[in-house]
Amino acid sequence: MNPSDLESKILQMLDGELPAGEVAALEVELLANAGSRGSYQELVRLHSTLEVRHESRATIAHTKIVPIERIMARQRQRIVKVALGATAAIVLVSVIVLSLLKVPDAPIASFRTSPGSLFTITHEVADGEEAPVGQELAVGSRLRLQRGTLEGVFKSGVRVVVEAPCDLRVLAGDRVALDEGVAWFEVPAKAIGFSVETPQLTVIDLGTAFGIYAIAGEGHEVHVTRGAVEVTSHVEVGEAQTLQEGEARRVDALGELHEITFNVDGFTVALSECDGLVGHWEFETHSVGLTPDSSGNGHSGRLQGSAEIVTDQERGNVISLSGLRSKGDAVDIDLIREIPTLLAHRGATLTAWIKRNSDDSAGHWFGYIVGLGASGDIPVVSLGISDASGFVTGFIEGETEGEAEDSDQVMVVGDTAVVDGVWTHVAITYDRVNNEAITYVDGAAQGSPTDITIVGDGALDWSFGKIGKTTDLSDRDDRFFGGLIDDVRLYDRPLGSDEIHALSR
Amino acid sequence: MPFRKKEDPAELQVYVKLMTKNQGNLRAFIISLMQGSPDVADVLQETNAVLWQKRHKFEIGTNFLAWAFKIARYEVMHQRDRTIRDHRLVFSAEMVEVLAGMDPLEESDEEVMTALDACLAKLTEEKRQLVEARYTPGRSLEQQAEQIGSSPGSLRVALHRIRTGLKHCIKLTLSSRPA
């Protein structure tokens, strides 16, 4: 091929105008001739530089330019805000610590929290009175739960379970204000008359168990699971009704109470006692876009994009994901920052039931079923399915023998292809004590465990997770899972093969 | 010992500069492996994302371009698999490996851009307009042909000649720059 022909064909190819047959001929020439490759390299550089030059000029012509000084000033402001935030936190902690130095007065409630919960308590006490000590509440106490789940018991026997975020004030021994949050109350017969006030509603117990959604910007809801309650709205015209077991109401902007579908599954009614179960998403229900965490740890999932809960003939309610980036379907899991400490010692297990769309493989590389990591970073632990092979595959942050030196992800791949359109139980266990990981399909271990050499011995950077996509910036079509997912479980330890097998039944 | 080493602000600044300074080289490298496919921008974005995620793995003072090309090659191969499934044309794996193994051109993005500007300035207005028509987003050779009463085919031939000339001009300009 003479130089002129060569250059002409290269430019045609870069313009996308070279016929397939001639591309093959050009490839033969490039493979055979180092000089041709040099020419190719120079023309590609010219082509790329021309594109960049004109793209940047077009961008500059249509872009409002912000001076770098302004950007720097904004960054400094942000730093100041963060610093002030940190200072505020220290002051708050100081107030609490000071309150702990005082001798306690008679508390009226005590509470415990799920592992990893984060909360603050403040007390209003008159001169001469003492504040409660530790995880106890008195009249005037304000409890703000930023993370996790909390179970409180009043002296009267009233039991309350709240999920973060929640803002609860104790107004009296038989009266609390739920300024924000999702809470479930169980009131014994001796405490009939116990009342809960939200900014929109007052709920007076008539011997019962009930749940309240008090989410800012939404109509507050009451769901009665046992007995009866009296509900009064404070908004505008106001309205009062007595609700019986199995009934639910939502208040609207005018203060009228509207009948809604009763839904007890949206409430956490007890702290989990399961060993190592950190999160459990059954997708049986959702309210205001949140699907509850059945583990009791309060890691509710937030539905994103067009993700929706649908009813499947075999498995009941499940989450349905399109697998398309344009729709952005996923379930975000937040508030799991305390897990790293546990993970650093024991490991993790991810399990799920999946039913992949039969057409999901088109154009896909790897569908993430669950990814856990820092926001915007590659997952530290993930479970997915490889499009090319259909094998269940996981990625664990770490290193192993034989991996590329720049890789910090160890691939744990199975050897059984998952059949599209069929419900399949999949899992990955990561044993951080013995430094190995393995995947499972329908309860059967896939090959031999993969060795993992851990980098350092600190906690894994794990602040949130996603179901149906990855946590990192690779927001591409081929990183989404398309199909149905159900019964996702996260453990802070490696389950045994017998336990995985039991979950797959 | 923390899982990730704590970032040194000075090292981070150097890393960001390296990423910024080598965008043109990186882009050209990806184009060379992908025949100028429309997916180049996606792969470049993906490569940049991975480069940022793996910043703590890079040792300042070692060859950044070699490091970046290695990651880019990996991303190109992923994209190549998808392109094959879409029945679109790609280079063979052997071709990609051979091209990826070539030594990068030694001039910096800035030097090449300066040389290009100088060479474009030597063109006639008519020829510059033709290059603008080909590379400015929103413009096309067809529009240009209609505007000057010529055929798109003849403009393509002319454009090929102009670009070949620009390539030689840049090479000459770069080789004659002071050491």
Describe the protein's architecture and organization:
- The complex is a heterodimer of chains A (505) and B (179).
- With 505 residues, chain A is α+β, with helices and mostly antiparallel strands.
- Chain A has three domains: 98 residues, no CATH class; 158 residues, Sandwich (Jelly Rolls); 227 residues, Jelly Rolls (Sandwich), CATH 2.60.120.200.
- Chain A is 20% helix and 37% strand.
- Chain A has a 15-stranded mixed sheet that branches. In chain A, strands 16, 19, 20, 22, 27, 28, 29, 30 and 32 form a nine-stranded antiparallel sheet that branches.
- In chain A, strand 8 and strand 9 form a beta hairpin.
- The longest helix of chain A has 33 residues.
- Chain A is elongated.
- The N terminus of chain B is likely disordered.
- With 179 residues, chain B is mainly alpha-helical.
- At the A-B interface, helix 1, helix 2 and helix 3 of A face helix 2, helix 3, helix 4, helix 5 and helix 6 of B.
Structure at a glance:
The complex is a heterodimer of chains A (505) and B (179). Chain A has 505 residues and is α+β, with helices and mostly antiparallel strands.
Topology:
The complex is a heterodimer of chains A (505) and B (179).
Chain A: H1 3-14, H2 20-32, H3 34-61, H4 68-100, E1 109-113, E2 118-123, E3 136-137, E4 141-147, E5 149-154, E6 159-172, E7 175-186, E8 195-197, E9 201-205, E10 209-214, E11 221-226, E12 228-233, E13 240-244, E14 248-251, E15 257-259, E16 277-281, E17 290-291, E18 301-304, E19 308-312, E20 316-321, E21 330-333, H5 339-345, E22 347-356, E23 366-373, E24 381-386, E25 391-397, E26 409-417, E27 424-431, E28 436-441, E29 444-445, E30 450-451, E31 464-467, E32 483-491, H6 497-503
Parallel strand pairs in A: 7-8
Antiparallel strand pairs in A: 1-3, 1-5, 2-4, 4-6, 5-6, 6-7, 7-10, 8-9, 9-12, 10-11, 11-14, 12-13, 14-15, 16-32, 17-18, 18-21, 19-20, 20-32, 21-31, 22-27, 22-32, 23-24, 23-31, 24-25, 25-26, 27-28, 28-29, 28-30
Chain B: H1 9-21, H2 23-34, H3 40-53, H4 64-85, H5 93-100, H6 109-121, H7 125-135, H8 141-148, H9 152-175
